[in-house]
UniProtKB/TrEMBL annotation:
Keywords: Hydrolase. PANTHER family: ISOAMYL ACETATE-HYDROLYZING ESTERASE 1, ISOAMYL ACETATE-HYDROLYZING ESTERASE 1 HOMOLOG. Pfam families: Lipase_GDSL. Probable lipase. CDD domains: Isoamyl_acetate_hydrolase_like. InterPro entries: GDSL, Iah1-like, SGNH_hydro_sf. GO terms for molecular function: hydrolase activity, acting on ester bonds. The gene is Iah1. This is Isoamyl acetate-hydrolyzing esterase 1 homolog. Belongs to the 'GDSL' lipolytic enzyme family. IAH1 subfamily.
Length: 241
């Protein structure tokens, strides 16, 4: 993001970026009490947090659009999250449009990592996030309200989470195993708003877990532009340009 526009004096100032790439759980992350909003607040004046969540998408579609979202001008991206699997793990017989077979899911994640590396986003800047656990009774209510049957199950989601963790090990990226971490609390239903998407409590949990992995990637970033008390009011150009 250019702070100084055309014709402004001084060099153009560009904010570093943390990019959040995923499905609806990412798209909703800037809602009130959302995990993306939390990160943006923590990183204000250091970098932009950019939401590229696309509701309903799976990795089959995500790998096709990634090159349109991130081009060769990716040097400003200091970290990126890849957060898919909640849709890929939909049951094939009941939700064939979103379902992606487990082996293809893993291959798609690897493909996205390889693309990011091709535009100079190294493994140490990539964080994979597994799908969260599914609370089946709550999600079944949400499905029935739309005239559908329960189209996901937690055990299947867990297989996709394990595949995501393995991809991270194979490719040398960070990973946040949300499926496992959330279930350390025996009753994880409070982390979910409808059995699938995050509640405010779940979003707070994700934000805290993600920050512990993200902090070391952004800790060296300086605050951009001087604190207002440090601006020379008699000659602001000297301290701002």
């Amino acid at each position: 993001m250019a702070l100084a526009g055309p014709g402004a004096r001084g060099r153009t100032l560009r904010w570093p970026r943390v990019l959040l790439f995923g499905d609806s759980i990412t798209e909703y992350s800037f809602q009130e009490s959302g995990w993306g909003a939390y990160l943006a607040d923590r990183l204000v004046r250091k970098c932009d947090v950019v939401n590229r969540g696309i509701s309903g998408y799976n990795t089959r579609w995500a790998k096709l659009i990634l090159p349109r979202l991130i081009t060769e001008s990716a040097e400003s991206i200091v970290a990126i999250t890849i957060f898919f699997g909640a849709n890929d793990s939909a049951l094939k017989d009941l939700n064939p449009k979103q379902h992606v077979p487990l082996e293809e899911y893993a291959a798609n994640l690897k493909s996205m990592i390889q693309y990011l590396k091709s535009v100079d986003i190294t493994e140490d800047r990539i964080i994979l996030i597994t799908p969260p656990p599914l609370q089946e009774s709550a999600w079944e209510k949400a499905c029935l309200a739309k005239g559908d049957k329960l189209n996901r199950c937690n055990a299947t989601t867990g297989q996709y989470a394990q595949a995501c963790v393995q991809v991270a090990k194979d490719c040398g990226t960070d990973v946040l195993d949300l499926w496992t971490l959330m279930q350390k609390n025996q009753d994880f239903s409070s982390y979910l708003s409808d059995g699938l998407h995050l509640s405010p409590k779940g979003s707070s949990f994700l934000a805290a877990q993600l920050w512990s992995r993200l902090e070391n990637k952004v800790s060296a970033l300086p605050s951009l532009l001087p604190y207002w008390r440090d601006v020379d009011h008699t000659n602001p150009e000297a301290s701002l340009l």
